[in-house]
Specification:
The protein is mainly alpha-helical. The chain has one domain: Ferritin (Up-down Bundle). Helices cover about 80% and strands about 0% of the residues. The chain contains seven helices and no strands. Helix 5 packs antiparallel against helix 6.
Length: about 170
């Protein structure tokens, strides 16, 4: 396994451990679901990195990307925002530890994104570049999920304004 893939695997494994620890510490079932889903997604990343590394070891060539790269996790977690329930939202808003965990998660996802961007920029191999770009998109999705949860709970006015601005773009004039 190449050095970049070893580091990528370590980063994905650390991300998984972070989300599992966050799920264990979460005070409410909804946060546990979010963090467990993110840990599960990091596990998928680990599997993909291992598949790529295995193919490289066997053939010496970059394989096609696995079909489940860029699985739509936003849709799975987004269901919470349709009918969250007032009691759930009130309990979550009072959880300062959750806010800190969300911010730490966003920071970790940004670091991963930057790492993959550097790797993508440093290779001429298009299959390798596509792989790193796919992982960049995955990390960006995670960041957006965490940011959306954070803004919904802790910056509710901004969240509603941003979300309405996407639907009613005349508001952005």
């Amino acid at each position: 396994m190449g050095n970049a893939l070893v580091v990528a695997l370590q980063m994905e494994e650390e991300g998984r451990r972070f989300y599992l620890r966050s799920a264990e510490k979460a005070k409410d079932p909804q946060s546990k679901k979010w963090f467990n889903a993110l840990a599960e997604d990091e596990n998928r990343h680990i599997r993909i990195v291992r598949e790529i590394a295995g193919a490289l070891n066997n053939t010496g060539k970059w394989p096609d990307l696995p079909a489940d790269v860029n699985a739509d996790m936003v849709q799975r977690l987004g269901r919470f925002f349709l009918h969250p329930g007032e009691n759930v939202v009130a309990a979550l808003k009072g959880d300062i530890g959750l806010k800190q965990t969300l911010e730490m998660g966003m920071s970790n996802e940004t670091k991963s994104f930057e790492f993959y961007r550097e790797l993508a920029g440093g290779t001429k191999n298009m299959m390798e570049k596509d792989f790193y770009r796919a992982l960049m998109a995955e990390e960006n999705n995670h960041f957006e999920i965490l940011q959306n949860i954070n803004e919904f709970l802790f910056k509710t006015g901004d969240w509603f304004s941003d979300e309405e601005g996407k639907t009613w773009n005349w508001m952005n004039i």
